[in-house]
Design goal:
This protein has about 350 residues and is α+β, with helices and mostly antiparallel strands. The protein is built from nine helices and ten strands. It holds the Pfam family DUF932.
C-alpha cells in the first residue's frame, strides 16, 4: 500500500485525542497558537513532552484474519491493521508488508536532530482522531518586519505530523504565525521549499540530511518570507486600491443578482474594509500592502462562513480547520492569490 502525498483527514473530526480519558496534548507555558488543547507544565526534553502529551505508546502491525459465517479463518496474505499497544484500539490502518510505522518516540528523536541537534524547545505536541495523526511543533527564530518602527513579529514554527492509519506520508512544514493576531500565514514562497514528506518505510528516518537540505531549516524559508513581507510593508495602499483587491478576490454579483447574494458580498466587503482600515490588529502596519494581506488572511481565518458540526462550537471548528490545514499541507488558494496580486501590482 503506497503512502499518499500528504496527511489525509477530516477537519470536523480533527479533535484532540481523548482515548485514555485525558487530552493527548502538550503546550509550552501558554495556550497554543491554534487554540486547541490545554496548557501543561514546561518540559525540558522530548521524552518529558512525549509523556505529558500522552504519546508514550507504540503502533503495532497485526495480521488481518478472514471471517466466514461468523468463524475466524486464516490470515489474509500481505494485509495488516494498525493498533495502539496501550489500549488495543484500531487506528484505522489497513497496510501491506512494506509499510513500517514511524513510532512517536522515533519521530521526536528525528525532530530533535532535524531542528536543533538535540536541543529543542517543543511548543506543542499531541494526537488527533484517536491517535491516527500525531503532531509536534518547535519554534524557530522569529522574523520582525520594520524592527525600529512597526515591529511586526512573525513567529516561525517547524511542524512535524505523522499518520498511523497507513493512508498518508509524514510531513514536516515551516509555518509562520503573525504574533499580534495569530493569523496563520501558510503562504507559498517561491524561493524556498517549506514542506518535506517522508514515506513509511524501514529507513524512513535515516534521511535526516536530505530533510535538512530540502527544507533549509530554517534560514532559507525565513529569509525568503521576510523579503516578501518587507516589500509589502514598504508599499502603501489606499482604501480605493484595497477595494479593487477585494473585487479581484471575490467577483462582485452581476447586475440583477439575487438580493441575498448582493447582501452577502456587501457584508464581506464591509468586514474586509474594517479589518484593513480600523481593526486594532492592523494598528502598527496600517495603510500598507502588508496590512491588506493581513486583512484578507484574518478574514479567511476568523470570519468566512463555515458549516459548524453540531458537536463543536464555531471557534472550536475554526481551530480544527486551521490545524487540519497545516497538518495536511493544504494549500490556501485565496491567501496565495492575494499575496501574488499584491506583490505584482
Amino acid at each position: 500500500m503506497r503512502d499518499s502525498a500528504v496527511i489525509t483527514g477530516r477537519a470536523d473530526l480533527g479533535a484532540i485525542d481523548n482515548t485514555t480519558g485525558e487530552a493527548a496534548f502538550y503546550s509550552h507555558r501558554q495556550p497554543a497558537w491554534h487554540g486547541l488543547g490545554t496548557v501543561t507544565e514546561e518540559a525540558k526534553t522530548s521524552e518529558e513532552v512525549l509523556h505529558l502529551a500522552k504519546l508514550d505508546w507504540q503502533v503495532e502491525k497485526r495480521p488481518l484474519l478472514s471471517m466466514h459465517k461468523g468463524k475466524i479463518g486464516k490470515k489474509i496474505p500481505n494485509r495488516f491493521g494498525t493498533f495502539r499497544d496501550d489500549t488495543g484500539d484500531w487506528l484505522g490502518g489497513l497496510v501491506g508488508n512494506t509499510w513500517t510505522p514511524i513510532q512517536n518516540r522515533e519521530a521526536f528523536a528525528f525532530v530533535d536532530e532535524l531542528v536543533g541537534g538535540g536541543h529543542v524547545t517543543y511548543e506543542t505536541a499531541g494526537a488527533l482522531d484517536g491517535g491516527r495523526v500525531v503532531f509536534m511543533s518547535t519554534m524557530s527564530p522569529s522574523i520582525t518586519i520594520d524592527p525600529d518602527g512597526a515591529a511586526d513579529r512573525i513567529d516561525l514554527y517547524t511542524l512535524f505530523a505523522n499518520s498511523h492509519d497507513g493512508r498518508s506520508a509524514a510531513v514536516a512544514v515551516e509555518t509562520p504565525i503573525r504574533a499580534v493576531c495569530t493569523n496563520t500565514l501558510d503562504l507559498a514562497v517561491e524561493e524556498a521549499q517549506r514542506t518535506w514528506k517522508i514515506r513509511h518505510t524501514s529507513d524512513a528516518l535515516s534521511q535526516l540530511e536530505e530533510a535538512r537540505r530540502a527544507l533549509g531549516f530554517t534560514e532559507r524559508y525565513a529569509a525568503a518570507f521576510e523579503a516578501e513581507a518587507t516589500q509589502l510593508f514598504q508599499t502603501a495602499m489606499t482604501n480605493q486600491e484595497f477595494d479593487k483587491l477585494i473585487a479581484q478576490l471575490w467577483t462582485p454579483p452581476a447586475e440583477g443578482a439575487r438580493k441575498n447574494l448582493i447582501a452577502a458580498h456587501e457584508e464581506r466587503r464591509d468586514r474586509l474594509h474594517h479589518l484593513f482600515a480600523e481593526a486594532d490588529t492592523q494598528d502598527n502596519i496600517r495603510g500598507t500592502r502588508w496590512a491588506a494581506l493581513q486583512a484578507v488572511i484574518e478574514f479567511d481565518d476568523y470570519f468566512r462562513n463555515v458549516k459548524v458540526p453540531e458537536a463543536l462550537t464555531e471557534q472550536e471548528h475554526r481551530n480544527n480547520l486551521a490545524m487540519t490545514a497545516l497538518l495536511h499541507d493544504q494549500k490556501n488558494d485565496l491567501k496565495d492569490l492575494a499575496k501574488s496580486l499584491l506583490l505584482a501590482a
